[in-house]
Design a protein that fits this description.
By secondary structure, this protein is an alpha/beta fold. The protein contains five helices and seven strands, in the order βββααββαβαβα. It has helices spanning 38-47, 49-62, 98-115, 135-152, 167-180, and strands at 2-5, 8-14, 24-29, 70-74, 82-87, 120-123, 159-164. It starts with a strand and ends with a helix. Bound molecules: adenosine-5-diphosphoribose.
Amino acid sequence: MNTRIKQTDLELIQGDITKAEVDAIVNAANSELIGGGGVDGAIRRAGGAVIENVCAEIRKREGGCPTGKAVITPGGDLYAKYVIHTVGPVWEGGNSDEAELLASCYQESLRLAVENSIQSIAFPSISTGIYGYPTEKAAVVALTSVKDFVMQNNTAPAIIQFILFDAATNNCYVDALWSVF
Ligand code: APR
């Protein structure tokens, strides 16, 4: 399902983000930037050793990546030239700034994309797997955050995709698209 915000095409796609033919894909990482399961494991397997090598340098230099922030590495063997690693919040019931932190993941990832002249970017559904954020709530936060960024930035990427792994997640994002736009 597609929509347009100013100069940007926003696309919801069900599939595997490691196969995305875009300039950058976004990883749902952890603060230590140490490989995990879920989409993180899939991206690292597909991208190869360069991702861990650059994550190790960032760990050494900056101590990792705080929740709500993002860092960038090469994409290695992926089609995508870059991987932007962002750290979503763990769901703790909704009163621990989870929505603000999740919105910040999308803002910070897009800010890094603009800084690196990235024209096309694909996001997974951050925090809704191992981190337990309810998908219907996360979808509204994600799409609202992306919409706000594009409205406020004339240099936002021309293509922003959400690549949702399963039908249930895809359906939540389709419903959220109707409510946000
Ligand atoms: N393509 C797209 N989406 C995927 C893929 C894939 N190849 N594999 C998994 N997903 C989906 C999951 O189905 C879920 O909808 O990504 C979404 C996010 O789930 P997680 O990967 O579990 O991410 P998150 O909930 O943010 O938890 C992050 O998990 O792997 C660890 O190191 C990571 O500690 C961090 C934590």
